[in-house]
């Protein structure tokens, strides 16, 4: 079990590091816009970062589920894995994310679905902007709550 927990901690830290780099690149890109409404290409770039952020979050959640519950329903697993992370599982693990972070990440999940499946040329900036405007707060909260979860895992190792 020790090796399994150490590997989980290492994987979470690696994904958090990737999120940090992604967020830094995103911030540079956004600063370059100078407050202007993005054109279609720029909307696609922003969408790419928002999409990849949620993918990284979901990867962490999958690693946690595999380490503790090891039962991922193939039907609608994108929704169920996120919901599972806000649940405390008695005797197994605490909740990973708060209700507020769950709501924020669910917006990213829904956006990611649209971004992946959009076949028209233009993204709806008003909808994308809602998620983009919440990116900073969501990343901060995600890092805080996953940092607390790493502490929980480290305590299990003692």
Oligomer: single chain
The unreliable regions are none
Question: Helical amount among residues, as a percent range?
Answer: over 70%
N/C terminus separation: 12 Å
What does this structure look like?
- This protein has 158 residues and is an all-alpha fold.
- It has one domain (2-157): Four Helix Bundle (Hemerythrin (Met), subunit A) (Up-down Bundle).
- The chain contains 6 helices and no strands.
- The chain has helices spanning 2-33, 40-68, 77-85, 99-117, 125-133, 135-157.
- Helix 2 crosses helix 4 (99-117), helix 2 (40-68) packs across helix 5 (125-133) and helix 3 packs antiparallel against helix 4.
- The longest helix has 32 residues, at 2-33.
What characteristics describe this protein?
158 residues; Four Helix Bundle (Hemerythrin (Met), subunit A); 6 helices; 77% helix; 0% strand; globular
Give the arrangement of secondary structure elements:
Elements: H1 2-33, H2 40-68, H3 77-85, H4 99-117, H5 125-133, H6 135-157
Write a concise synopsis of the structure shown.
With 158 residues, the chain is an all-alpha fold. It has helices at 2-33, 40-68, 77-85, 99-117, 125-133, 135-157.
């Amino acid at each position: 079990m020790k090796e399994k927990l150490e590997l989980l901690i290492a994987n979470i830290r690696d994904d958090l590091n990737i999120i940090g780099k992604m967020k830094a690149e995103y911030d540079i890109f956004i600063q370059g816009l100078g407050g202007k409404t993005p054109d279609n290409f720029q909307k696609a770039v922003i969408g790419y970062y928002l999409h990849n952020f949620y993918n990284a979050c979901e990867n962490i959640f999958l690693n946690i589920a595999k380490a503790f519950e090891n039962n991922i329903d193939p039907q609608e697993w994108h929704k169920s894995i996120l919901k599972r992370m806000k649940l405390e599982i008695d005797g197994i693990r605490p909740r990973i994310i708060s209700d507020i972070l769950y709501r924020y990440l669910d917006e990213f999940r829904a956006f990611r679905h649209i971004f992946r499946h959009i076949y028209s040329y233009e993204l709806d900036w008003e909808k994308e902007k809602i998620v983009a405007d919440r990116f900073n707060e969501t990343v901060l909260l995600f890092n805080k709550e996953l940092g607390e979860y790493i502490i929980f895992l480290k305590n299990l190792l003692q």
